[in-house]
## 1
Amino acid sequence: MGSAVAAIAARREFFEAMVVADYDPARAARALPAADPRFAAAAVDASDQAAIEALIAEHRITHVLNAVDPRFVLPIFAAAQSAGVDYLDMAMSLSAPHPTEPYRQVGTALGEAQFAAEPAWKDAGRLALVGMGVEPGLSDVFARYAADHLFSEIDEIGIRDGANLVVTGDDGEPIFAPSFSIWTTIEECLNPPVVYEAGRGWFTTEPFSEPEIFDFPADIGPVECVNVEHEEVLLIPRWVGAKRVTFKYGLGAEFIGVLKTLHQLGLDRTTPVRVGGVEVSPRDVVAACLPDPATLGDRMSGKTCAGTWVTGTGVDGRPREVYLHHVVDNAWTMAEYGAQAVVWQTAVNPVVALELLASGVWSGTGVLGPEAFDAVPFLDLLTAYGSPWGIREA
Amino acid sequence: MGSAVAAIAARREFFEAMVVADYDPARAARALPAADPRFAAAAVDASDQAAIEALIAEHRITHVLNAVDPRFVLPIFAAAQSAGVDYLDMAMSLSAPHPTEPYRQVGTALGEAQFAAEPAWKDAGRLALVGMGVEPGLSDVFARYAADHLFSEIDEIGIRDGANLVVTGDDGEPIFAPSFSIWTTIEECLNPPVVYEAGRGWFTTEPFSEPEIFDFPADIGPVECVNVEHEEVLLIPRWVGAKRVTFKYGLGAEFIGVLKTLHQLGLDRTTPVRVGGVEVSPRDVVAACLPDPATLGDRMSGKTCAGTWVTGTGVDGRPREVYLHHVVDNAWTMAEYGAQAVVWQTAVNPVVALELLASGVWSGTGVLGPEAFDAVPFLDLLTAYGSPWGIREA
């Protein structure tokens, strides 16, 4: 993800310097765009708050963009807060299920630990722009756009994500290879999905609930989607009025089966098990057995679609139903940036946001989601980055 | 498996002493029947041929019964050969797929490494009785019985294994918990299944080939069975004439789905992967995540059935079809022996064989399968152990 951010940012003029940090300094160095003196590599342990603070001080960082997996949200977030700099991420602090009614009530919500720090961020006059990838991120921007420009009243905001990406093996046959971090995908899909309803607030359901076939644009077509725990459901109701907010992921029947089996066998667990003389997290072993999603771009084909489906009453007072969407073709992202589609689509949005913050078009203090800002300049700048969005009326 | 062997043998008089050896001496000690001075515990590394030879010498062992998983067949087999003692096992040396046509041709067959040592065993006048559990084992005895007493000509001998065992979790709901070593089950089910046909010899197919619904006796009923690599297919044609020999395992659709997913994700692999700072075999991690099958007996209910289905021409010259079978109820094995049904059913057969060898009713030299011996005394003695077999005419 960091490599794609660097490749996208390298084409822009809005920043003076960008430090790409990784646990493995060689990996950080490989992410640096060629012949661009604005970029530097550094080594850092993302679980070590003090080390991150030292890195911020050493390079006089003004904005920390967290591009690692959500296990490391809190130390990076706390380091930015402590160092008094602005912060962005693409996924929020992890949830914990309700101790007695996990499939009915929210326990600790996604991002709850970050919103708890809201007063301190506001007092310090600093901004934590949370959930600023594609989903959450662009999907939240779409929700704000719909509320401001398309609807007078919103019944439901449903994020819908689907793709027709296929990865082929050495023999040219399709292979099983998730296009995004399996660690995060397991976390999202096996946690109790969260749903928001006005009057009732946030509640949870069984995993894979409310299956529906959603017809995606471009040539993706119909995909089976199910409820999944995702930040948008927590973020959108804070700034956008809607009677219901959901997130459904187009996993498809095969992938749902794989996730159910991993859960059934306990292979989704993150607590270590003893194997021979060592201790390992089963979920880390699953991830180690699968190819690194970031390396799959040249064996992948197809498109991925992120978007926000909105129903309600249009500004003209008549019923309206739209799907605001952003489709990315893997062939294009590979040719232009050498990044696979899902990674590129996630990475482009925080770069757009950084540019809006750098120019002052977006500004704010506290812990804010993307829907707290004006959607139009964001969508215009995304289009200027060469990646237009679309709208489908039902 | 060793604990069940000891518990069963403790009720018999045919031996002077039995040493239960394990990598973990405390585990060996726990397997000793109470207040029976014939039993002793020892520590041994089953992968260390010299250590096994030393153990044989120390205790003046006459028969080595290998009751560990098939990865350790060769060092134990070689140690017995080198020490000049008799040997029994319940699974044979592992196969390796054909390098270019794994789903058509046999590469290295199950037991091939053991049969290669046949001349040396014969020269030494010592017996290696291989595949002497329930399947292989009792199933091979059934095949010999059918050939000697029921048929004048055999068309097909098909081993068919099915169960209705259910394991319940702490909340009383059924949980996923294989009743036999998952390591061995993965090995059996994902290796190319082997089939024997007179004239063509041994050949392999794709995993899970030739699905059929087989109606099992007792109250087990119909279960989906598929071809699986198993020793009987290699053993039976060496001693019993048949036009076709197969092994089909009643895995059921759910378990077949689990195995396919493990394979798809590479979690069936035994070669280590790097996870953080350590290296582990993914298959060992899968096993570590599941409950130890030997500990499930008191949470298990139902019956397991092993048997041999035979079609051909009866001794009266008319078409005949029979299913010779052995059904074990988990409630009975738990009450009688404190062992779960599948473990007990596997363990009882080598004890019966040891008793027949001790009494001289069975004798032989070389590397022999169970079907090389007279079936009747075996089946009679099994019944005398309290566990009768049955026959169903089609």
## 2
Amino acid sequence: MALRSLTKFNFVRQGARSLSSTASLVSVEVNDKTGIATVTLQRPPVNSLNLELLSDIRYNLTELGKNKSRGAIITSAFKTFSAGLDITEMYKPDIERASKFWNTLQDVYEVLYGSAYPTVAVINGPAPAGGCLLSMCCEYRVMVPNSIIGLNETQLGIVAPPWFASTMENIIGKRQTELALTTGRLFSTDEALKVGLIDEVVQDKDEGLQKANAFLGKFARISPFARNVSKQTIRGETLKRMSKDRENDLKRFIQVITQDAVQKGLGLYIESLKKK
Amino acid sequence: MALRSLTKFNFVRQGARSLSSTASLVSVEVNDKTGIATVTLQRPPVNSLNLELLSDIRYNLTELGKNKSRGAIITSAFKTFSAGLDITEMYKPDIERASKFWNTLQDVYEVLYGSAYPTVAVINGPAPAGGCLLSMCCEYRVMVPNSIIGLNETQLGIVAPPWFASTMENIIGKRQTELALTTGRLFSTDEALKVGLIDEVVQDKDEGLQKANAFLGKFARISPFARNVSKQTIRGETLKRMSKDRENDLKRFIQVITQDAVQKGLGLYIESLKKK
Amino acid sequence: MALRSLTKFNFVRQGARSLSSTASLVSVEVNDKTGIATVTLQRPPVNSLNLELLSDIRYNLTELGKNKSRGAIITSAFKTFSAGLDITEMYKPDIERASKFWNTLQDVYEVLYGSAYPTVAVINGPAPAGGCLLSMCCEYRVMVPNSIIGLNETQLGIVAPPWFASTMENIIGKRQTELALTTGRLFSTDEALKVGLIDEVVQDKDEGLQKANAFLGKFARISPFARNVSKQTIRGETLKRMSKDRENDLKRFIQVITQDAVQKGLGLYIESLKKK
């Protein structure tokens, strides 16, 4: 890593600026030689996806697109890849903020799942729920041993939206997705490899970055245009269905989180986290 | 088994009563502790699915739904899981009864494939054609060794309807389904495990029931609501397409069984069974 | 092979006759005992799919359909199965001929992917791009060792159309298809077997023909009608989507090949081939 020529990105965020905390929640380094960007999530302690972190992810991924990136590697600055959606965004919600939160998650999905540039997730620690979704949006996944990944929403009494499910189906097929979603299964690294939810096991983050660069290196001599059209051919239907359903999807989200039973459940869950 | 606290269900069937034979063709036992129902098909000798057996299955599965079942295990009282649709329903058919027969099969499919409660098939013997379909509607399949399962309709000169095919596709994928349907393949237990048509091999029915209870036990602490929404997310499209097409599907069935060539074939087949 | 009773087909081509070169580009031999046809592509040196070869394929496959064939085996007279679309059809194109060329490819796809009779590809050498497509249209694929197969279009700066992609998806699933198309991957024989792109490895063409006949032999006692309806159930959606989109698909093809950048790329590629 030390030998790479890196440029630290300093995109000036316009408009949405106020959403961002002072310290950036996402760092982007671009290798000048390969044109590959490493996008590191760094919201302590576990990259819980709140409105601000999602906004920063959306912003940076969009900027990479505008700059005709040769590829992006998503990873974490911590021992957790991402703990998933920040539950405090759903607990005793301000509806306006909660709506922005969900819309931003939808945006991140569209920008990442549909990105013109190739993407790899270096899953250097647990990736439950929304963390799993982020990694599933990438085109390749490498993961450290003895970790966990999965859409475990039902374990928390909530439901992964249809587009989470479709995205998993596109990777591991309908049968395994049904089993995974209904049981809220968190796969171990080995189980994830076996079922095809990840592509390679790596010893640590450094090896993960090497493998990610190797995967993206395959595209060095391939027409980015032809590559991207092929990607959209495969992902287009899922993306289109999701985009068409954005408003209903938001309504369903707001409806769920404003239920007494769900609020009670989230309250108990947050209490249990505080005690840890 | 002997130690479980069981309640024998005695649903009072209304209206459709006359369809039922005096001796019940389906027995339902509910474990009072777990809330899990064991649904045993018991139409001698091989659970051929005629109008009466299908009506009893539909009735009992629907009642379980109304009673917010925690799960259902489908198995057989005999050495055959189910020999599939009763061919005598199609031979020299009374059109009114044949239509009821097919509509009831459609109902059973909708009730079982779309059930809000989780389901397991303990396949304790051969499960060709309609027997395979029944087991494929469940969320988990365990099977005894040295048996057979598959949609072998083409071997009999008839065709598995599109919703049979979709249901198999959702389990083993398009490629394997095409090979299986065109060749009318009956998979051995080992082959079924390898291709993913079943989930586990068990030594006998008792072990099958244990494994089934273990699978359903996973859901003990999961919100039935969240679980069911996830199931519908995965199965909804297939169910919706089938429900929309019910009338055409019935027409096609009647059209097929009223063909001279098919009647001749069925006649020869029934003769050959009698000689055995 | 020597012992088989073979009838050499001499279909009299009407109308499209002028498209055909004097020496036939496709030979068809029918085994009088089994009714199985061996369709051998023989356009030297590597069965590049130009307008004439595609026309001959379309013609012969259509005739087999009219004659209620019991099955067709597609193979090559050379050491290459097929090098794919003939690039000279796209280089400095006459738009009328290029349109006929593309329409004929679409026809071949519809006739082969949707054929009422069963089909096997004996892939006795490299099958890149259009060669891979031809083999993927068959119901079974056997391949010689140490060869290559895949949709490598992106490696050439062009894009496999959506129906190429769908056809691959129907065999190896969405995940593997995305990886294959974006990287323009050519699978080795062993890799193709592992991912399910081919069904068996055979030592040579003769063993391939034996295996192909063995696969087609499975259908000897199965109703061709029931078999075909099952095939259409699985393939119908993909075929229908392709047929509906034929005109747009042609427009996109013409649009792509009339781009300066693509012409320049094709020119360089043709130059590099000449130097070999």
